[in-house]
């Protein structure tokens, strides 16, 4: 049984924001279009480092299950967790309608799950979530505890600098209207050096980093070496 303590590392305003949009998660032309567009890139990168076939994977902050569903369809036994009830219900409904194999969803805090099922997953993903919680380091520690020795933990988030403010907030939210205004708070963005410190303190070894770029004219995303705005990190728990 969860106690109220498991919900301390959550911003209620953030939960409400995504809950209000929950019914639009699986509309590829909605506010979540960027997630649908980048999902194949994320999935391919994860799969290239930690092949998902036959693996037990956890998607932390899964929202409507866009990545969770894709990992299950890649052969993984996937569990998606979130604290946004409406988003989880949308994820569960989509899994039923699409008959996605080997996927489950739970409303549970990652810290609570880490206490319940330590060292249980081959792969843990936490994508586009760290910049939405009060204490990102707590999430990192929980992910590190959940992964098996030798397993991989993947993070993606937003760098904190003038360029990321211009691109991720001014450009994406106010000029191009790719995201609803207020989606991100610049102060919550996380520099790679800060995330690296949290990973190191949690016992995770920093293995690979990639940046994600976007061309508004072609509407195309791609992975690159430029981590100045969006970036992805692969870490590993030592054996």
Automatic annotation (TrEMBL):
Alphabetized InterPro entries for the sequence: SAM-dependent_MTases_sf (IPR029063), UbiG_MeTrfase (IPR010233)
Transmembrane regions listed in the UniProt entry: none
Single GO molecular function: 3-demethylubiquinol 3-O-methyltransferase activity
EC code: 2.1.1.222, 2.1.1.64
Gene3D superfamilies reported in the protein's UniProt record: Vaccinia Virus protein VP39
GO BP annotations, alphabetical order: methylation
UniProtKB keywords: Methyltransferase, S-adenosyl-L-methionine, Transferase, Ubiquinone biosynthesis
This protein's pathway: Cofactor biosynthesis; ubiquinone biosynthesis
Residue numbers binding S-adenosyl-L-methionine: 42, 61, 82, 127
Catalytic activity: a 3-demethylubiquinol + S-adenosyl-L-methionine = a ubiquinol + S-adenosyl-L-homocysteine + H(+); a 3-(all-trans-polyprenyl)benzene-1,2-diol + S-adenosyl-L-methionine = a 2-methoxy-6-(all-trans-polyprenyl)phenol + S-adenosyl-L-homocysteine + H(+)
Highest taxon in the source lineage: Bacteria
Family as reported in the entry's similarity comment: Belongs to the methyltransferase superfamily. UbiG/COQ3 family.
Known function: O-methyltransferase that catalyzes the 2 O-methylation steps in the ubiquinone biosynthetic pathway.
Protein name from the UniProt record: Ubiquinone biosynthesis O-methyltransferase
UniProt organism field: Limnohabitans curvus
Upper lineage: Bacteria, Pseudomonadati, Pseudomonadota, Betaproteobacteria, Burkholderiales
Gene coding for it: ubiG
